[in-house]
Design goal:
Length: 91
């Protein structure tokens, strides 16, 4: 499995993100979905990187704003993926 790209090095610090619902953006997120996700489906999520798992797939990535967060959840559901955990990671 590959290591997620370092999205923190794009010249924009966390405190420059907008403050929505107590979470500052951009923020790193971990998304766990039930089962193994195919490479073809993973290619549809270029801002998320898979991490090693056996009975679930872990996606790690940076979400830039509330709209992108909502879109990510909707896309995962539209792809038929069962989200088992979704959390913002500490800095």
């Amino acid at each position: 499995m590959s290591t997620p790209p370092d999205h923190e090095s794009h010249g924009r610090s966390r405190d420059q993100g907008s403050e929505l619902g107590g979470a500052a953006f951009p923020s790193r997120y971990e998304v766990r979905v039930f089962g193994r996700v195919s490479d073809q489906t993973l290619a549809d999520y270029p801002l998320m990187a898979p991490a090693g798992a056996t009975v679930e797939t872990i996606l790690l990535g940076v979400v830039r704003d509330q709209s992108e967060l909502s879109s990510l959840v909707l896309r995962l559901q539209d792809d038929g993926l069962e989200i088992t955990e979704f959390r913002r990671l500490p800095d």
